């Protein structure tokens, strides 16, 4: 039996300060190599917390309190720090939400893409420059020779996100965590960037955990989907099946509430109150503390 690329079991996280409000309540998720798994839910559902727990970059206020996160069979939560940091940036990479704050404003973009290749692949000189240029071409940046010498503020938001995609895929990671990578972009650019991520992951055979509040994005990009509500998995499965025949009332409501892509300004509509109430009741009856 092949080992999943990523296998999360019973992941729990909570606020560090009393009363230690739980944020993740036993999240399970399995990702096979080369697959794209969408993590979807409303704001505050815990999507980013899952992504950050995988990357070991949870804010100080949040701690993992239970469960396992296995990457190719090894538990990231139990790994020696030196081993964990050798995986980050080489086997596991991040495409962040906000390209401007992820890039160093004082360094040219070519140098920033080159960092991972120098550090993780030992590339130098002309070979390194060639590789950076070919990555920029791969993410469809015209005139890469000129772009490597630019500073982040000299590029558009879409170009900056392409630069970060190039940086994430530069060292051929096995797993990419994409945390709402198109939220800051306008709708037309969003579509191009999504297509680009899909193409890059297919070409590089990369597994992707894609954090989004947008089921339209899930439909376009993801093989599998996990629906989160208040830190708990409500529904999980192959995207086509879940979207065509959602088993849970919350998923159905989320589909109905999703922004219409033919009307980009339509926004997300609220989930009906009775469904939220029923979900909270399910949690209480499931034996968990009624903490909110
Ligand atoms: N730095 C922090 N300190 C305290 N609580 C936090 C912090 N970051 C997140 N939280 C809390 O953790 C919970 C889950 O947040 P998370 O960011 O994972 O949700 P999300 O589903 O990604 O939502 P969004 O789409 O708004 O980012 C929320 O209740 C949030 O208030």
How would you describe this structure to a colleague?
This protein has 292 residues and is of the alpha/beta class. It has a domain at 1-91 and 176-184 and 208-285: P-loop containing nucleotide triphosphate hydrolases (Rossmann fold). The protein has helices spanning 47-55, 81-87, 99-102, 109-121, 125-138, 144-147, 157-169, 187-204, 215-221, 239-244, 249-257, 273-285; strands at 6-15, 22-31, 36-40, 62-71, 74-75, 92-95, 175-179, 207-212, 224-229, 232-238. The strands form 2 sheets. The chain has a 6-stranded mixed beta sheet with strand order 6-7-8-3-9-10, with helices on both faces. A 4-stranded antiparallel beta sheet has the order 2-1-4-5, covered by helices on one side. α8 links the parallel β7 and β8. α4 packs across α5 and α7 runs parallel beside α8. The longest helix is centred in the last third of the chain and has 18 residues, at 187-204. The chain is globular and about 65 Å long. Mean pLDDT is 90; it is low at 287-292. Adenosine-5'-triphosphate binds next to α1.
Sum this structure up briefly:
Helices cover 40% and strands 22% of the residues. It is an alpha/beta fold and 292 residues long. Helix 8 (187-204) links the parallel strand 7 (175-179) and strand 8.
Q: What would the keywords be for this entry?
A:
4-stranded antiparallel β-sheet; disordered C terminus; alpha/beta; Rossmann fold; single chain; 12 helices; binds adenosine-5'-triphosphate; 10 strands; 292 residues; 6-stranded mixed β-sheet
Note the overall shape: globular
Compressed to H and E, one letter per element, the order equals EEEHEEHEHHHHHEHEHEEHHH
Bound compounds, each kind once, are: adenosine-5'-triphosphate
Q: Biggest β-sheet: count, sense, barrel? A: 6 strands, mixed
- Strand line-up across the major sheet: 6-7-8-3-9-10
CATH class of the domain at 1-91 and 176-184 and 208-285: Alpha Beta
C-alpha Rg (nearest Å): 20 Å
**DSSP helical segment count:** 12
Main location: membrane
Family: Belongs to the ABC transporter superfamily.
Domain ABC transporter: 6-255
GO molecular function, one term: ATP binding
